[in-house]
Amino acid sequence: MKLTTERILSITAIALGVLFVNSVFAPTFASHFITAYLPDCDAVIFVITNQYSSQDCDDNTIIATSTSFASTFSQTVSALSDYSLIYIKSGTYTVDSTLNVNKPIHIKGAGTMLTKLVYSGSGTVLNINPNVNPPHQIMVRDLTIDFTSTTGVGIEISNVNNGLFENIHVIDGSVAMKINSMKNSRVQNFFFENFATYGLQINGDGGAENRYIDGMIIKSSGSATAGVHFTRSQETDVGGSYFTNVLIGSPSTGAMTYCWNFESTTTNPAYSFIWMTTSVGDSCNTASARFKNIGGVFITNSWLATGEANTYGLILDHVDHLKVVGGSIQGQLGAVRISNSGNQYHQYSNVWLEPISTSGYGFAFDATAYVNEIDVNNVELVRGTLSNDMSKIMKNAISLSVQPKISNVMYIKQSGRNLVDGTSHTITLPVAEPDTNYYIIYGWAGAQGDNCRITSKSTTSFSVGCDSALSSRYIEWMLIRKLP
Fold it and tell me: In the listed set 370, 404, 438, which residue is the last one of a domain according to the structure?
């Protein structure tokens, strides 16, 4: 058949007409148009003008339909066999009550920017508790949960083994994610924001082994308690919780009490085996990280910092077996605060300790606190003093090697710029020195001083004498000390 210009135009018009009908009227046609371009799934949930429906991905039969998303979701879960996958198409879904997953089912959205569950209640949005023993696999991924209030839990997980939770965004609510019992499972690529109490809340007791938390951003601009909140009430050893590439911070200064908080109500430290690697806690208003009655803590190449008033980078209260390797610890009053007795076997290696205040400490001990056996090796003290009680560091130290950061030979302790007149000038130091074993390097702003020299030093000042009188000259100086 010869394709004339007129025939080509006719065929094109018909094709465009079919595409228009499919795109505009597909929801009113056979269900084939809903499932035509879906990922591999067993059931698909979609919304058309406030009507929530689900259908079989293979034969296109309708499974459930309702004006309530929770009702449609519940009927769909009940109709499917274990390990089936529910695909929630792109769209905004109003959730009026808890979505319960009581069997090993997989749930997948179209993406965090595409599938949004807007919750109007005050309880839990997605409650995962498979009613099987032993617990089995669960997968949830690629969606957003958005609260309309500051109450409620985004995702609550219980009785899960070999679970995968990834690519999920939770906005507002009280707790973004609550883990009651989960082991041999992975949580990755999450974004929690504007929660009222906790970003990630973890029960560290039974069934709490081998949880891998990777690639998570946790931020709150409200008065939240903690980004990660881990609790225990038993002393039985469990292991472990592995946090990698987790960023916790407050967009507004000092919004969260703790970025990281791990605590136990047990008498003795509960061995929990917490691993924190290449992670961050920043701008929380009491401490970046706090450990209380916890044993088995390993922090590697992480940044624990807070510049708020009266804060510490790391607070340790009755912590057994702690190892910090690499990274930086910063706090206004001190890098590390050690409170209470019973701390033992602490090791710091290749770490920056940075008190924000020049009067702060690398290690600040409470009155009754101590560490039984502390190993401080190749630690760089950026400013301040190593400890408020050097006797506790030295008495219990296995080894001690601390270097100020500025130089391998000398370091700058303080500096200033002062206006001087006459032939003799006394410069008061902003901060008193412990002794006079320091050096002054100085110069003049503008014309050079005539034959001037340092004539005396004390712990609170130094004097400069000149052969000829000076008139309104500025001296610029630095006080430097030798490394101990």
Answer: 404
- Are 424 and 383 within one domain? no
Cα–Cα distance for residue pair 116/123, rounded to 1 Å? 18
Domain count, the chain: 2
Both structure tokens of 399: 């080894």
| Whether residue 172 is found in the same domain as residue 238 | yes
Burial class (CB in 10 A: 0-12, 13-18, 19+), 391: exposed
The b-or-e profile of 97-130 (16+ CB within 10 A means b, else e) is bbbbbebbbbbbbbebeebbbbbebeebbbbbbb
Nearest to 338 by CA among 371, 311, 310, 306: 371
pTM reported for the whole predicted model: 0.76
In a domain, 217, yes or no: yes
CA distances (Å), origin 403, targets 218, 313, 361, 400? 34, 19, 14, 10
- Blockwise average pLDDT, block size 10, the chain, 484 residues: 42 39 36 51 93 94 96 96 95 95 94 95 91 78 91 93 95 94 93 94 83 94 89 83 93 77 91 95 92 95 86 94 95 90 88 87 88 85 83 67 47 81 89 89 71 91 88 85 65
Task: Give the H or E element holding residue 157.
Answer: strand 153-157
Neighbours of 25 (CB within 10 A): 10
pLDDT number for residue 447: 60
Q: Which domain holds residue 415?
A: 410-482
Q: What is the pLDDT of residue 223?
A: 84
CA distance 109 to 99: 15
**Phi, psi for residue 370 in degrees, rounded to 5:** -160, 170
